[in-house]
Amino acid sequence: MKENKYKRLFSNTLIFTIGKFVSKLIVIFMLPFYTSYLTSAEYSTADLITNLCNLLIPMACLGVSEGIFRGAAAKNVDKESFFTNGVLLMLIGSAVFLALSPLLNLFDYFTDYIWLIVLYVLASNIHSVCSQYVCAIGKTKLFAGQGVLNTMLTVLLNILFLVGFDMGINGYVLSIVLADFLSTLFLVFTARLYRAFIPKKIDKAVLKDLLRFCLPLIPSTVFWWITGVSDRYMVAYFCSDEKNGLYAAAYKIPTLLTYVVVIFNDAWKLSAVAESDNREECAKFYSGVFKYYIAVMFAGGGILAVGAQIFAKILFAESYFSAWVFIPILSAATVFTALDTFLGSAYFTVKRTGMSFWTSLIGAALNIALNIILIPNEGPFGGAIGASIATYVSYFAVFVIRAITMKRFIPFKMYPVKLILNTLLITAIAASMTAWGSDAKGIIIAAALLLVSIIINGKDIFLGCRDIIASIRRKKGTAVE
Predict the structure, then answer these.
(1) What single string gives the DSSP state of each residue in 62-120?
(2) Distance between CA atoms of 446 and 375, rounded to whole angstroms?
């Protein structure tokens, strides 16, 4: 049984990696294209539009895609019932969102883009509902494949709209909308989702169960958005769109680590939900995976921080190169985003989404307070640097709170000594690169600290790879027998 769950986790992670990580790499390597065809001010506006949409998405669909996934991924349930009732809730939420969308006119900054925002939110919601259901019912290869399709459509449409039609911000956002819409059509007909929507299976009990699970996720998502995105609005307000364009571009580099987290989390949720019936086995499973997880995250964050200038040189247009200075602290922040996500999955697994709400609220409140204090400051810790510090502190605080409270739900081993040591190292690496990274001295200090991090985490990474290879060999041996 133990081997089977690790095999399933590895198999799903591999599928999602092929489907998602390749797609996300394509998006990253499109950065030189975006930074060449959009000015820093235009890139800032496009980034703020898409991030506003990401705030509105869970509100408009009542967070139901996560509920569909959690319900349909469980054993011995009527999966079509969760899909049918979930789609109904999404349609109700979308109708309310459409009715309230004129309120967006209150924000002058977005007045010219309201039609794009509405289309973006609706297209993203229906795509998310369909893709999460496909994943939950075990069609992981199709889920990964549609992710590749979605990315390729976005890239091709970006090239068409930005180069061919010179549509600027409108073209950048519209390409994402159309890619989501076309990917949804692909899923509907390939997975025959029209057969999964069965009106006679609409059930008040299932609707209540979905709402009970999903509603706490909406404010939780909002607070998480505030922690991760509000700083960009404040940088644009207190500094300028140009400065925020640089900051937004810098944020794309640590996103490489976020992509790893998203890919793993898709596979992890499937495996964790499958083991949720046995609390003791679930705790052992979490302990075994967390050891490898923290090793990869801290080592990966350190590499991104030390290589900030290299990544900026390769992926940014020359006018954006100065944005490298924001990358080290944002990379450290992303490590704790990853750890927060892992611990948040435990709340998801045991259906205690209310804890996600409270911990996210604390992180959001702390982030706003620090942004207000630091961003307007004209000293070395002000401006966009201040925003990155606020983001790091907020994610770290959420991690500490979740780690302390986790034993009430899934009491798994967290390896506190390694966590403390790694936290000190990633913080020192980020500080060294930010303060002295323009000189050889700072890079040498940060590289030395990174070497220590790799030595500390290398063993666990090696053992994790060894276990994966051994699992593959056992699987092949079983197949031969």
Answers:
(1) TTHHHHHHHHHHSSSS-HHHHHHHHHHHHHHHHHHHHHHGGGGGG-GGGGGGHHHHHHH
(2) 25
* Cβ atoms within 10 Å, residue 62: 23
Non-local CB neighbours of 117 within 8 Å, separated by 6+ positions: 49, 52, 53, 56, 101, 104, 110
Tracing tokens 């794309």 back to the chain, one arrives at 252
Per the document, the length of the chain is 481
Q: Which residues contact 337 (CB under 8 A, 6 or more apart)?
A: 228, 258, 261, 395
The tokens for 297 are 């995250």
Q: For position 471, what pLDDT does the model report?
A: 52
**What is the reported pLDDT for 438?**
83
Phi, psi of 151 (to 5 degrees): -65, -45
pLDDT tens, position by position, 96-110: 989 988 888 887 778
pLDDT at 427 over 90: yes
Q: What is the dihedral of CA 25, 391, 333, 293, to 10 degrees?
A: -90
In the predicted structure, residue 197 carries a pLDDT above the cut 50: yes
Q: What is the phi-psi region of residue 241: left when phi exceeds 0, alpha when psi lies from -120 to 50, beta otherwise?
A: alpha
83 in Cβ contact with 194 (< 8 Å): no
Cβ-proximal residues to 259 (8 Å cutoff; 6+ apart), any chain:
20, 21, 24, 25
Question: Is residue 210 within 8 Å of 67, Cβ to Cβ?
Answer: yes
Tens-place pLDDT, residues 368-417? 999 999 998 877 788 889 999 999 999 999 999 988 887 777 777 888 89
Tell me the C-alpha distance between 252 and 259, whole Å: 10
pTM of the model: 0.70
* Residue-range domain boundaries for the chain: 38-215, 227-481
- Digit-coded pLDDT (tens) for 50-72: 888 888 888 887 778 777 877 77
CB 86 within 8 A of CB 68: yes
CA distance 11 to 476: 13
Q: What pLDDT digit, counting tens, does each position of 11-44 carry?
A: 555 555 555 555 566 666 677 777 777 787 888 8
Query: Which residues are within 8 A (CB) of 247 and not within 5 positions of it... i.e. 6 or more apart?
Result: 231, 232, 235, 323, 326, 384, 387, 388
- 242-275 pLDDT, tens digit per residue, is 888 888 888 888 877 776 666 666 555 555 544 4
What per-residue string of b and e applies to 144-177 under the rule 16 or more CB within 10 Å gives b? Answer: bbbbbbbbebbbebbeebbeeeebbbbbbbbbbb
CB 139 within 8 A of CB 195: no
Place of tokens 């020192």: 428
CB 191 within 8 A of CB 138: no
